[in-house]
Structures are given as C-alpha cells and as structure tokens.
Amino acid sequence: MGKESLIKDAWNEWSDTDFAKYRSDERISRLIAHPESAFHHTTYSMIKDVYPNLEGKKICVPSSGDNHAVFAFYLMGADVTSVDISERQLENAASIAAKNGWDIQFICDDTMALNQIKSNEYDFVYTSNGVHVWINDLNAMYQNIHRILKDNGAYIMYEVHPFTRPFGNDTTKLTVFKPYDSLGPFGEIPTFTWRMQDIINAIVSSEMNIKHIEEMYAEHNTFWFEVSGEREKMSPEEVEKLYQWQYNPMAAFPQWLSIYAVK
Q: Given pLDDT bands bounded at 50, 70 and 90, which one contains residue 224?
C-alpha cells in the first residue's frame, strides 16, 4: 500500500472517530455565530488586512480537514472550494453544509497535485494548522498553490511553528527528542516535521512573493495543550503557568506561524 493510501485510509477512519468532536452541534453553532473563531486572531487580522471584505472572493482551502475555515469563509460571503485527500472528511463536512443550506464545493484531491483544480482560478488560498506534516513534497504543494491562484492572488498559511518540533510536551524542562533537521518520514503513517527554511524556500521557489510573516506565542486558548484538549484536565493555576516561561520553558518559543505571500 502506498504512503498516500495509508494517509487517506487513516483520515477516513479518524474522521468518524477522533475528529467527530469537531462536528458537534455546539462547535458548529459557535462557528456560525462567530466565523472568525475558526482562525487564530493574528492570522485573522492578516486575512482582514489583505481582504477587508471577502464577499464574492473565490477561495480554495487545500487539506481542509475539519472544514471550520471553509465554513467560516462561506459565512463571510466567499465562494469556497474545500479540497482534501479524505473522502470521509469531505462527506462529513458536506453533510453539515447541506443541513445548513451552504453552497460549498467539495473536491477529493491531493494538495501536492490539485489535479481537479483549474489554473488561475482563485483569489485566495488558505492552509490551516496540521497540513504540512502530511506533505512529503513541499515544492509540489506550493507550485500547485501558485498555479491555481489568479495573478496577484493571496496565500496565507497558519501552522505549528517548526521551532517547537524537536521538543516534547514537558512543561517543567526542555526535553529534546529529535534534532531540528531530522525531517522524517516518521511512523507507519508517514509524517514530516519541516523547518522554517523548508517552508519558506518552497514558497519562494514557487515564485510567490512573501509579504509578511508572524510568529505567535502562546496566548489564552492558543497553546498546544489547549488545542489538543489537555486544558480540561488542568487546574486554573496550572493553566496560568503554561503561559509563563519561568514555569514552562516551552512558552519561551513561538508556538504558531503565519505567512502571507502573493502570486
């Protein structure tokens, strides 16, 4: 079985198990009431700086995952295409869209190929947290993002900061479990931990122009423990200490990365 098939099969299973919680009525209702909640506030500010009004903009979201960003863009008035390698992720998202009467296009395709997406089609391409670890060819991914963008179209990404990748989740001391330049693949279902230079060089090699980069530190409800659901297991005092590097050395590192580039 090829690597792509392993990843697709895994995500088809996870869509109905681990990731089903992201489709709860409570989460979708919150998203409908506050579409901006689908984004880190710094990333959302970058989006609004580029497109103060998303009404009628054509947006593609490759590796759309839980589709929260897709739903948010639609609720903000955009014409959105959701692309993912997992049929079940798309089917589950399409069910939510149908239930709410949302006109969103769902396409099963590989982010490194985007074979079913026409060239020069989109005003804006967005990728969210957790995309890059599944990509084995960054150059192919970014060349195709460049291809599907219109001239002067925008690309914005939001991702775990590569600087956190060598370290474990120990909140009392820094625990290194791999070198920064050990990229992978890791595990039976292959993942990769790309460096800053790998991501930036791939964007530049695609002939997109990087306009702005933001490195975001841990803030309320944006730390990796909170994103993964660990926050509920902690006392208020423990949560408060997560953000203080004197108690949690990982708080001294940026946790998230956003890049804005233009074709």
A: low
Of the two residues 226 and 211, the one the predictor is more confident about is 211
Q: Which residue in 158, 165, 168, 134 sits closest to 214, CA to CA? A: 158
CA nearest neighbour of 134 among 167, 114, 111: 111
In terms of residue numbers, what domain contains 213? 3-262
Residue 243's closest CA among 263, 216, 206? 216
Cα–Cα distance, 69 to 76 (Å, whole number): 10
Would you say how long the chain is, in residues?
Answer: 263
* Alpha-carbon distances, residue 261 vs 207, 208, 216 (angstroms): 10, 6, 18
Q: Rounded CA gap, 85 and 20, in Å?
A: 17
Provide the domain count of the chain.
Answer: 1
Distances (CA, A) of 152 to 103, 125, 217, 233, 249: 26, 12, 30, 46, 41
Q: What is the DSSP letter of 167?
A: B
* Window from 154-158, 178-182, 217-221 with minimum mean pLDDT: 217-221
How many Cα atoms within 13 Å fall on the side-chain side of residue 97?
24
Mean pLDDT, residues 240-247: 86
Residue 154, SS3 per DSSP: strand
Q: What is the pTM of this model?
A: 0.93
Q: What is the CATH number of the domain that holds 157?
A: 3.40.50.150
Nearest Cα to Cα of residue 63 among 157, 204, 185: 157
Structure tokens at 82: 């959701």
